[in-house]
Amino acid sequence: MEEWIGSVWHQFITRKASTEFDLARVEFTQVSKSVGVVFRALGGDSVKRVEAASNRDYLSRRSFLQKISGDNQQISLAWQDADSLRLPESIAVFPEVELNKDLYIWLAVLAANHNGRFKHWAIDNQQLVVDVLDKFPSLKSRYQRLASAFVKLRPCVDKMPIAEQEMEQAIVKAVINPGSVSAFPRVNYAPQAVFLWLYPATQTEGQIQAEYADEDIEEPTNINSKKHNKTARKKTERVDSSNSRDGMMIFRLESLFSWSEFAKLDRGTDDSDDDDGENVAEDLDKITLSQQQDQKSARIKLDLDLPSSSEDDLPLGEGITLPEWDYRKQQLVSERCLLQPMLPKDSVAKGLPVHLQKTAKNIQAQFEQLQTMRYWLKSQPQGEELDLNAWLDFHVERQVSPTAERGLYQSFRGNNRDLSCLLLADLSMSTDSHINNEMRVIDVVRDSMLLFGEALNVVGDNFAMYGFSSVKRSHVRFSLLKNFKEPYNDNVRGRIQAIRPGFYTRIGAAIRQATKILIEQKSSQKLLLILTDGKPNDIDHYEGRFGIEDTKQAIIEAKQAGLKPFCITIDQEAEEYLPYIFGRYSYSVMLSPSQLPVCLPQIYHRLTSQ
Fold first, then answer.
1. What is the rounded CA–CA span in Å between residue 10 and residue 24?
2. Helix or strand or coil: residue 522?
3. Distance between CA atoms of 324 and 339, rounded to whole angstroms?
4. Neighbours of 187 (CB within 10 A)
5. Which residues contact 324 (CB under 8 A, 6 or more apart)?
6. CA distance to 122, 368, 498, per residue, from 501 (Å)
7. Are 105 and 164 in contact (CB under 8 A)?
8. Rounded CA gap, 37 and 287, in Å?
9. Between the CA of residue 590 and those of 418, 424, 426, 572, 574, what are the distances in Å?
10. Phi, psi torsion values for 306, nearest 5 degrees
11. C-alpha separations of 114 from 39, 83, 125 in Å
């Protein structure tokens, strides 16, 4: 009974104290796609994530009811940093749904034209609004509607202290007439949140970087990548780890307000499933971390997770040094990576597996049409037949003015496919995951490369196949499966069947080496096919934006060299980053990974028969 009365009272007092309009509430998930499109279309950084921001502490003067209910201590505001734009999880500022949606769009427009740094929050926001309205005059009516509705909802200033009255009046004037206020008074409390403006990046939110001595180890990542819920970022803090062993603590249960305040959890030695930790993090308002010395052993275990030389693939040569793009400095750092060409260990000559033979015959029959394809060469001085279109044009032009003779015949020619293709396959450890009860990703990759080789062998195209994985920048593995000068035979089939999951996905270095190999070919058309199951990553700084930017730069270099890059992926979240890396029409996402072996030759057929 007491619990029921307490819950009813809490709901009543919270509803009375709240200044939001719940019936008109708009969730970030409802507008995330449109907001992302607006942000990037109007100049926002295309690599930045657009995501929800968790509530942050906001010290403003509260009403009596808000003090009783505990409301308005934390507010979800709009801000951005170098990695992402973070907008409120939900907006219920206005009584109308359309105005709340417009506010999301307006905040995205502001963020797209701001670098995220403030000298004076209020003055800079005024100037930002002025710049945006000058640049996009069509937004003036939208902003005026938002500003007028927002000013009507501002608190009454009659009972405020003098300094706070002046602050509130200055804010109202700045919102109605941006740029009209050049000085703001000092107050002890922050003014009521101005939802039409951006806020500075919080100092307590975001990821806490590990404090390792090795500069390359900044963000250890899980080898087997999993899908994560796109929830708001949590506030974080770092505390000192206590190793003391205290005795039993006796307390009254009524004093336990919340279990989310602090939980000493050693994730370095915890053996529970990762999903358990994710579920706990979803429920926590603030995540508290401590740095422990024994965490270094976990890092060492990852570094030592390389096979011994007797069990590893066979290295070819001393390795090749390659550059890497540093997006922070906007420059290519020379000799940054060491790429090691390798041959798969214990590969022996093998024929095509039985389960692929029927499919291979069907694909080969389709590709034989490319080999025998013939076409008419128009407007020739001589040929087998008269070119009626050329003759008609000549006849009409001659009626108007004297016209020189031209080719009036068409000739039947055989197909001449002057192209080279390099297939680059991602062999990272994530390919060891299962897609169903019978097959892993690596099995699908093997079958795809085998059928790809059978198809191109029939049509006679010049092609090569390589695989790659990595362990930091000093060990990028580049597996040779078939080079351009080598015939496709059982030796190549044996190498493909001997590939196994490797380590991480430092794709930029692999693309640069593949580009070098393709440039050496004499063909007029050069196609670089990239087969992957996830975004670029490694256990050093290559995780996140660094890897994406380096991969994009490698693709730009390949295009400048005259290559045609195309990516095929089974990553269902690839739509978030592949358009930025490859371009809108230079990638394909496989909705069903098991169909990749059949789809890969078909995609090649489409790309090369145009």
1. 22
2. coil
3. 12
4. 18
5. 332, 333, 336, 337, 473, 508, 509, 550
6. 54, 33, 10
7. no
8. 31
9. 28, 17, 15, 8, 10
10. -105, 140
11. 11, 14, 9
- Please tell me whether residue 322 adopts helix, strand or coil conformation: strand
What is the length of the chain? 610
Decide: 508 and 324 in contact? Cβ < 8 Å: yes
Using CA atoms, how far apart are residues 463 and 457, in angstroms rounded to an integer? Answer: 9
- Residue 258: C-alpha distances to residues 1, 73, 283, 284, 456 (Å): 21, 17, 11, 10, 64
Phi, psi angles (nearest 5°) of residue 492: -70, -40
Q: Interior CA angle at 232 toward 230 and 235, to 5°?
A: 140
3-state secondary structure (DSSP) of residue 417 = coil
CB-CB contact of 302 with 470 (8 Å): no
Of 224, 230, 227, the residue nearest 572 (C-alpha): 227
pLDDT at 41 over 80: yes
Q: Hunting for tokens 């660094």 — which residue is that? A: 546
* Cβ atoms of residues 68 and 108 within 8 Å: no
Q: Does domain 320-368+417-608 have CATH number 3.40.50.410?
A: yes
Q: What's the average model confidence in pLDDT over 5-20?
A: 60
Q: What is the pLDDT of residue 449?
A: 95
Q: Residue ranges per domain, the chain?
A: 2-176, 206-243+254-305, 320-368+417-608, 374-414
How far apart, in whole angstroms, are the C-alpha atoms of residue 196 and residue 4? Answer: 39
Amino acid sitting at position 189:
Y
State the residue for tokens 């308005």. 72
Strand bridging mode 331-343 / 476-482: parallel
Give the separation between CA 577 and CA 548, rounded to whole angstroms. 8
Sign of CA dihedral 74, 75, 81, 85: positive
Compute the chain's Rg from CA coordinates: 31
3-state secondary structure of 157: coil
Q: What is the distance between the alpha carbons of residues 408 and 520, in angstroms, rounded to a whole number?
A: 39
Mean pLDDT in residue range 396-415: 71
Q: Per residue in 98-153, pLDDT tens?
A: 999 999 999 999 999 988 788 888 899 999 999 999 999 999 999 999 999 988 88
CB 36 within 8 A of CB 71: no
**Torsion angle of the four alpha carbons 252, 256, 257, 258, in this order, in degrees rounded to the nearest 10:** -170
Q: Rounded CA gap, 265 and 287, in Å? A: 11
Diameter of the chain measured on Cα atoms: 110
